[in-house]
Amino acid sequence: MLQFDAPLICLQGAQVLRIQQPLFSTNRKSKSLAVSWPLPSFATMGTTSSSFSALQDPFDATQFQQVLSTWLAPMRLECSHPLLVGWYNKARAETADGTQSIEGPDDAVAFAIYSVPQFLEVVVEHYAREKPERDIVDGATNAILGELRNQLPSSLDAQVINTDVGPPYFHVQTIGAVCAEDQHVEAEDVKGEGSAEWREDLEDRLEETRDPKMWGTESAMRRYAYRALVVLRNGKQALEKPEPLEFLSIEDKKRVLSEYNLRHQLCLWRDLSESHPADRRYSPDEFFFFTETSPEKRRCENDHEDEQP
């Protein structure tokens, strides 16, 4: 069986790819990022944009999603559709023997939080203000999540976790799949005339470029993806599980799988078509920052941004 290296997730040993819709692609032709100084503090941004105190009983997942989305927007973060803890735990039981399960009632509602274009502005501002000694991206994320914990009503018994750090550790790409935030893509999804030849050709090229037994994820590949998980253990609701996403064309599936497997470090697999909305693309600064894996080089880039007037 042909197996592809996965940028985000492994399921039952088969290498697959999860793509978010709309996928945030890289706009390498755009001008550099313009940072507006100073951005408000996370506490100010949250309290002025939304109020969780306005939530009404009984708990309503749609209302909570709207309030959370509004609260996150100034920090260049977005939240997923609501999902149930039971959906995720069932998927993990079927694909990974129940590892990385969420502790909570099956009907408890949860949300994944992910960053979007211009999140680098937030990281730069936090670095300029706080000068964190460790990972500067996680430093900004943790500060935001800390303020979110303070804002959430205690009655919801919320658990807010930085999924890049843990513990606990969760398989956020599985979360994205069960709440229809991601499309699950693997080689067998490429069908039609010439598909068998395409898979065979890619398999041959993979044998020339990397160990076919090489597994795991590439940490740099999720920089523009999931940041956190919010589990509302007392926020319970019967939800209808959405149908899996299916939005990529056959040609896009081929290109994305080929790009990731053959030269994932270039991040071209993140791009969709030229018609992708410009406001959903990454700037060159964001692209180079988040594909740089050296903490010291990232810090130097932030120092350079800090010098801007």
Automatic annotation (TrEMBL):
Pfam families: MMACHC
GO molecular function (one): demethylase activity
Keyword ATP-binding applies: no
Domain of life of the organism encoding this protein: Eukaryota
Cofactor list: FAD; FMN
Example GO biological process: cobalamin metabolic process
InterPro entries to which the protein is assigned, alphabetical: MMACHC
Oxidoreductase found in the keyword field: yes
Keywords: Cytoplasm, FAD, Flavoprotein, FMN, NADP, Oxidoreductase
Main subcellular location of this protein, as a coarse class: cytoplasm
Any GO CC annotation of this UniProt entry: cytoplasm
Protein location: Cytoplasm
Family per record: Belongs to the MMACHC family.
Name of the featured protein: Cyanocobalamin reductase (cyanide-eliminating)
Species this protein is from: Cladocopium goreaui
